[in-house]
Amino acid sequence: MLRIGVMVSGGGTNLQAILDAIDQGRITNAKVEVVISNNPGAYALERAKAHNIEAVCLSPKSYSDRAAFNQAFLDKVNEYHLDLIVLAGFLVTIPEEMIKEYRNKIINIHPSLIPSFCGVGYYGLKVHEAALKRGVKITGATVHYVDEGVDSGPIILQKAVEVLDKDTPEILQRRVMEQAEWVILPQAIQMIANQ
Fold first, then answer.
1. I want to staple 141 with a disulfide (CB 3.0 to 4.6 A). Which of 50, 82, 172, 180 is the partner?
2. How far apart are CA 161 and CA 176, in angstroms?
3. Are 182 and 143 in contact (CB under 8 A)?
4. For residue 169, is the peptide bond before it cis, meaning its omega torsion is within 30 degrees of 0?
């Protein structure tokens, strides 16, 4: 049984996609043990509680400096003996010590077809704004392993989504979530849990 920790900063729609896939049997041999957020107001924490999953908030603002937060974050994650860490809209840089300790056990969902619109500064709506500004006709989402770079780890799955003429960043963001993110993130976890 793959022990999963999901890290989120906001609403937790990707977390919900994972929970739904487990409930529906599209993810087997896996269980979400903990949901960790840096944001005390994250609705993802409520989603976790509704599924009887431990919900933890660890905010960098609660620590004297980033090093103290990084150590507390790693210590908390280690308490759960996780086999896989899923970054699902987590807007905190993963500490290098954690990447080393959990090498090839941390995955991220990114709302573009990497290598397009990724790296430092590309997150959330900013990705879709950049895609529309550039005029691309196809965008999508990527699940990749996390390494020391930003969105630079090995790609696991990608799914393309068409960009339509009347798209706004918000409309495009929603379509990428529905047609790509919520599809390939559960698929990637299923692949890892049953390899």
1. 180
2. 6
3. no
4. no
Pick from 32, 53, 16, 81: nearest CA to 193: 32
**144-170 pLDDT, tens per residue?**
999 999 999 999 999 999 999 999 999
Structure tokens belonging to residue 118? 């990724």
- Residue 74, C-beta contacts closer than 8 angstroms, at least 6 positions apart: 95, 97, 98, 101
- Residue 27's identity, in one-letter code, is I
> Active site includes 110?
yes
Q: Hey, which CATH number is domain 2-193, 1.20.120.530, 3.40.50.170, 3.40.50.720, 3.40.50.2300?
A: 3.40.50.170
Options 81, 110, 128, 144, the catalytic residue: 110
Q: How many other CB atoms sit within 10 Å of the CB of residue 155?
A: 14
What is the token pair recorded at 57?
A: 């908030």
Mean pLDDT of 126-144: 98
What φ, ψ does residue 57 adopt, rounded to 5°?
Answer: -110, 125
- Residue 6, strand partner residues: 35, 86
For the full predicted model, state whether its pTM sits above 0.85. yes
123-to-77, 112, 126, 127, 181 alpha-carbon distances in Å: 23, 10, 6, 6, 14
Q: Residue 68 gets which letter from DSSP?
A: H
Domain boundaries, the chain: 2-193
